[in-house]
Each structure stands twice: as C-alpha cells, then as structure tokens.
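From the methods appendix. Each design record in this collection lists the tokenized structure first, followed by the designed amino acid sequence. Records were kept in a plain field format so they could be parsed without special tools. The example shown here is representative of the layout used throughout.

RECORD:
FOLD TOKENS (208 positions):
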C-alpha cells in the first residue's frame, strides 16, 4: 500500500462498534481517505476495517488503548466500554491522544443517547443511521483546534489512563497478524495478495 500524500488531515477514520465475546461488529463509520490516491482507497479501507475490528475484539472491557501500526505512521485510539460499545479513531502519530480519546468517548456517548441499548442485539455489521459521526470527523479534523475546545470545556481529567501498545501486543498466544489477515473477510483477495508480496519483498508500503 503506497504511502499517503501529505496533507493537513490528521484524522482519517472514525467508527462505532459493538464488541462482545470475541466478535466486533460495525455500527457506523466515517472516513476521510482524501490523502490516499483514488485507486488506493479501496484497499486502504479494507485494512482500516480489519485493524479496527481486530483491535475492538482484543482490547479489554473498560480500557482505553493507543495502538501503533507497523510501517506506516498511523495510530488506533480505542475506547472499549464495559458494556462493549466501542469507539475507534485512526489518526497520524502527531494527533493528540487525549483529543482522540475524548472524541471516541463523545462518539459512543452520543450513539448510546440515540439508540439506547438496541445496538446490543446486533449480530453482524450494520449501517445504523448516525449523521453526527460525520460531523465529529470534520469537527476533530484539526487536533489543535479541537484541543482548544477541550481546554475550554475543562473535561480533560476524565481521560486518565491510556495504555500504549503495538498492534502485535493485543494478539492472543499463537496468533499472528499475517494469519488473521489472510483469514479475514474484511480483506479482499487482491489486497491479501498485495500484502503477501509486499511482505515477501520487505516493502515499506504495507500497513502491518
């Protein structure tokens, strides 16, 4: 996967998921993949879905985790609530993690206000109508501006403990990213083939 062109967008992915047992299902998603080439976006999207689902399934309940991806300068900010409602934001490495964690907290709280506990019945990926997720993606696109808003709101103390991990750290014993990726329904066959070739050639353009 080719490196993205540099631009001012620091927040590329925002997703709300239902995580229970060892399964995570998408509830709603917003993205800004404009920093990637048009023909790359399909593969990029597949890998982001895979990374989000893998992280949501393996992070502990009630935890906030910042997960670094290999090879590319992107980070997953995951907040998995005790009830399983999970927010995931994917940003570049320079994006403030306290802003990102406040964002996913706001996302899950707002989603719950609209849908109550009905999301708990979800047994597969859904596209639930939640327009505020797109508004949040735009509102928090500039982390500096968002940070100023948070300072005014004075709610930063709510974001206390954030664990820092690499993507491999959340895997269970015996699991590898390569094996999970090859088995995943989120990744198309072309992307799997591309990933395998890139890995074999030790190229720097893969996500993992």
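DESIGN:
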């Amino acid at each position: 996967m080719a490196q993205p062109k540099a631009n001012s967008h620091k927040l590329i992915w925002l997703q709300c998921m239902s995580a229970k047992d060892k399964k995570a299902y998408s509830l709603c998603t917003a993205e800004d993949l404009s920093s990637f080439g048009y023909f790359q976006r399909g593969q990029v999207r597949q890998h982001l879905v895979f990374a989000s689902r893998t992280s949501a399934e393996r992070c502990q309940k009630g935890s906030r985790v910042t997960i670094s991806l290999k090879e590319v300068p992107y980070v997953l900010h995951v907040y998995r609530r005790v009830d399983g409602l999970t927010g995931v934001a994917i940003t570049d490495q320079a994006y403030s993690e306290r802003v990102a964690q406040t964002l996913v907290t706001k996302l899950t709280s707002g989603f719950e206000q609209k849908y109550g506990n009905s999301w708990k019945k979800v047994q597969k990926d859904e596209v639930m109508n939640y327009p505020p997720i797109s508004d949040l993606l735009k509102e928090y696109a500039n982390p500096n501006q968002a940070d100023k808003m948070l300072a005014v709101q004075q709610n930063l103390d709510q974001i206390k403990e954030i664990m820092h991990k690499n993507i491999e750290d959340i895997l269970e014993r015996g699991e590898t990213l390569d094996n999970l990726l090859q088995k995943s329904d989120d990744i198309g066959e072309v992307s799997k083939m591309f990933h395998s070739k890139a890995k074999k050639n030790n190229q720097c353009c893969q996500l993992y």
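APPENDIX NOTE: The helical segments are 41-58, 97-115, 132-139, 143-153, 177-183, 189-200.
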